[in-house]
Amino acid sequence: MSIRSAAPATGTGTAPAGPAEAPPRSPSRPRRRPRVNWWLTALLAACSLTVLVPLYFTVVTALKKPAELAGAGFDLPQDPQWGNFAEAWRLTGYPQAALNSALITVGAVLLTLLTNSMVAYAIARNMDRRLFKGLYFFFVSALFIPFPIIMLPVIKQTSMLGLDNQAGLIFLYVVYGLAFNIFLYVGYIKSIPRALEEAARTDGAGTWTVFWKVIFPLLTPMNATVGILTFLWAWNDFLLPLVILSSPSARTLPLAQYVFQNQFSSDYTTAFASYLMALAPVLLVYLFAQRWIISGVLRGAVK
Amino acid sequence: MTTAAPPGRRTRKPVGRTFYWMVIPALVLFVLFHTVPVLQGFYYSLTDYPGYGSHEFIGLQNYANLFKDDRILDAYLFTFQFAIVATILTNVIALAIPMGLNAKIRFRTTLRGIFFIPNVLAILIVGYIFNYLFSNSLPVVAEALGIEALSTNILVNPDLAWLGIVIVATWQAVAFNIIIYLAGLQTIPGDVVEAATIDGAGRWRQFASITFPLIAPFFTINMVLSLKNFLQVFDHIIALTNGGPGTATTSVSVLIYTGGLEGGEYAYQTANAIVYFLVIVAVSVFQMRLLQRREMSA
Fold first, then answer.
1. What b-and-e string marks burial along B25-40, b requiring 16 or more CB atoms within 10 Å of the CB?
2. Do B12 and B117 fall into the same domain?
3. Angle in degrees, CA B271, B273, B276, rounded to 5
């Protein structure tokens, strides 16, 4: 329900930042007992089933015939029904919804990276000025305002301005992202020595050039974090598309599931095929960029 | 704004004009789409605006009515009950699993990768999957095992439906919390734990007097963020119960959404949203103070 699911750990200044990002295998000193604890490994593997079983269930149910659904439903499908996916593809308007989700997510991520970092740079380099410091707190304080307060006025505003579509949604993600992203970027930019900029400036570069040529490339780790968080937020978000989008052709994947659920609530095998297709893109991305995503999310949380 | 700095303070270089141009467009848009709606929301909360047509200024009437409304009270009770149980459950599980992941085990990276999966999935869709599990699979399994209480769909039972929401919310939130605690555990130097082992401290003793105090800041982050997020629970409920049966699982967010958008209570529910905002801020600040004092004394 919040505009951004994570909030800054305000006041927990004691949170160690640096070493937290190290990959899990840490001890560099020679180990005396390299013995693997197999019992614990087995126990954790059993715990991981709580995550895997619902996913397994989704896959097998998506491939069953409706007649096979009786019982607990954990058995494999006798004769995989690939046609369920074609049916879900058609009924949920998958291509359109997936395209909308992709468009909105990519647009939100790119624009967020380009604009939010720039705003944060201007603020971070002028934090000794009362005006910019005030701006910092003004943006960041918005994190505490829950979406329901602004929900109704924003709906009216966007529909009045003709922003009740994909472009409007991109725009809102970029603007609302400012609160948390400025918090992330400013903390990071402060740690970049000014000497780098001074050097470029003496070579005659202006603020604009300095930012794009010197600072922006240095922001890569934070850009990754902001990009990943924005990606997960925009891709998975339900409430904002639900209230902002007016035309059915603008539907995102979660919204298409919601509409489908209300229309064809008893067609379970097709429903599960459509859930799987809606989850698949993000699962695939996760499979290949797992390390990146985890460390990106982590950097955003324990900064 | 750009000029007229007081003469005494002219020691610094003036702020370059480019810096202003980097900030102003974003500021204007943010004010327009965030600050103005906040103020509008506050104004409407002082009127009897139903969401359409005309309205009159009625002062604090909406706020007074909130406290007399059983629906509101029930929604707050449910939301807090849910959020407190889910926060505790999430943090207990999310503390236990990283302890294991940090020990000498195999497949650590793979396991960590699996535990994090729920964090990248859309809650709404996860909710739909669990909805089916609760209503169709769990009763069959429970019956086979002879567990009477679970042999019917828990989501249609007014006394048990909230547990279904706790389970899904915990399933999802644990992923994020595990990663934070794991990061915390890796900040603890190995020799500290080793020294304790040599001194003969048992496992529980080690956890209570060394590990936990050292990751206390991470505990604070997780407790505050979990409770704050759970208090705003919305997607889970839409997918699992839609607030029902009856109004048994109507959270404050769900009530604001349904009442404000569909029930013609725009002004009234906006007043509710503002009270709710104050409650969340108060709870977060209180929690932060409390936990930070613990950090100090631990």
1. ebbebbeebbeebbeb
2. no
3. 110
Question: For residue A141, is pLDDT > 60?
Answer: yes
Inter-chain CB proximity B119 and A232 less than 8 Å: yes
pLDDT above 90 coverage of chain B, percent: 44
Q: Has residue B253 been placed in a domain?
A: yes
What is the count of structural domains for chain A? 1
Q: Label residue A265 by pLDDT band (50, 70, 90).
A: low
Residues B37 and B79 in one domain: no
Nearest chain A alpha carbon to B171:
A51
> What is the mean predicted confidence (pLDDT) over B25-51?
91
In a shared domain, residues B244 and B96: yes
Which residues, 6 or more positions from B40, have their beta carbon under 8 angstroms from its beta carbon?
A153
Closest CA to B96 of B170, B201, B189: B170
Q: What is the pLDDT of residue A13?
A: 36
Is there a contact between B177 and B226 (Cβ–Cβ < 8 Å)?
yes
Degrees to nearest 5, angle at CA A174 with A171 and A178: 140
Phi and psi, residue B57, nearest 5°: -80, 125
What is the separation, in whole angstroms, between the first and last Cα of chain A?
23
For chain A, the average pLDDT equals 84
Ranges A69-73, A104-108, A268-272: which has the least confidence: A69-73
Q: How far apart are the first and last CA of chain B?
A: 48
Same domain, yes or no: B137 and B25: no
Query: Three-state SS across B122-150?
Result: CHHHHHHHHHHHHHHHHHHHHHHHCCHHH
Instruction: Assess whether B146 and B18 both reside in one domain.
Output: no
Task: Give the chain B residue whose CA is nearest to the CA of A280.
Answer: B121
Domain presence at residue B53: no
- Our CA-based measurement puts residue A272 at a distance from the nearest CA of chain B, in whole angstroms, of 8
CA distance B159 to B234: 19
Residue B237 maps to which CATH number? 1.10.3720.10
B70 part of a folded domain: yes
Contact A153 B256 (CB under 8 A): no
Q: Residue B35's pLDDT is what?
A: 93
Q: Please, which pLDDT band fits residue B213 given cuts at 50, 70 and 90? A: confident
Q: Which of A139, A232, A236 sits opposite B30 (nearest CB)?
A: A139
Total-model pTM? 0.85
Lowest-pLDDT choice from A175-179, B168-172, B245-249: B245-249
CB atoms within 10 A of CB B133: 22
CB atoms within 10 A of CB B284: 19
Q: Are A25 and B103 in contact (CB < 8 Å)?
A: no
Q: How far apart are CA A51 and CA B118, in angstroms?
A: 7
Q: Give me the interface pTM, i.e. the ipTM.
A: 0.84
Which residues in chain A are closer than 8 Å to B281, comparing Cβ atoms?
144
- The pLDDT score that the predictor gives to residue B93 is 94
Tell me: do B146 and B11 sit in the same domain: no
